[in-house]
Amino acid sequence: MELSVGLFLESAPKRQRYLRAAHILFGLGESGKLSLETRRQLLSAAVEYLKNGLSVYDIQLFRRSCEEHLDWLPEDLIVYEEEEAAVGARAEVALQSALSSLERLHVEDGVGESNSNRLLATKRGRLESTELRGLRDQMRVAEVYADIHNYEAMSKAMNRLLAMTHSMQQTTSISNRSDSLFVQLEINRRIVELWLGAGNLDAVRSLVGTTTATLMTQAAECLMQIQFCSPSRLVPQQRSLEDLISELEEYALFFSIVRGLCMFEDQNFSGFAHVFTGSGLRGAG
């Protein structure tokens, strides 16, 4: 019995849906066993993802793969040259927009630095807000480079992003320390997802080891301080605290799964079994 195309594709992150469709069609060696209707649905979905995406590389690879199966592709499921050109133009616009956001942020930082006589507390809050905006903009640059498969530029953008998060951690006020730790965890998670999409497990390994485990520990310690050091304020914050605990558990699950899969790829089966136990998943230490 065949599963629906929706189950094949829609459960994947948006950036991965085309790759999942292409893998089913061209990478499994089983596509000949699909019904004509299922294959057409997969091809139709793949073409739509390509037309609405930013990757000329994926379009060209799809076209080469289809040339090996000319009997598969009806005329209405072809990405034409003008459509490919439109994707390339849209990718350039997206990249320039992301880079322009970073440039505007640098200009605003320069203007802000000239007003050095303002109250320190007010300035500290503004800078933290600016840093978060800078992280978002830098993350967007990395994501666009990932979409167009410029992994060298993506790597450089990620390195800048990690340096920014480290700098933020060093300068963030104590009252916002937990927020800054959760920002770093989210940045690490999104970078891991991009490297997984690029198929670079070497880069992933460096992000799911000791550094991330330390961040998780520090975040847990901050939550304990919030819970036990401010009892009079605990009730109003209870919902927020529970949300943070739930978020931390999701990060632990994500990073443990990814690290376990890296162990499996490395044939470190004892380490893999330590994570994926018979009684359930536990953190990879």
State the gist of this model.
This protein is mostly helical and 285 residues long. The chain has twelve helices and two strands, in the order H-H-H-H-H-H-H-H-H-H-H-H-E-E.
Structural notes for this entry:
There is one protein chain. With 285 residues, the chain is mainly alpha-helical. The protein has a domain at 5-79. Helix content is 76%, strand content 1%. It has a two-stranded antiparallel ribbon with strand order 1-2. It is globular, with a radius of gyration of 23 Å. It starts with a helix and ends with a strand.
The average pLDDT is: 79
Please tell me how large the radius of gyration is: 23 Å
Query: Strands of the biggest beta sheet: in what spatial order?
Result: 1-2
Per the principal axes of the C-alpha atoms, what is the gross shape? globular
How many separate helices? 12
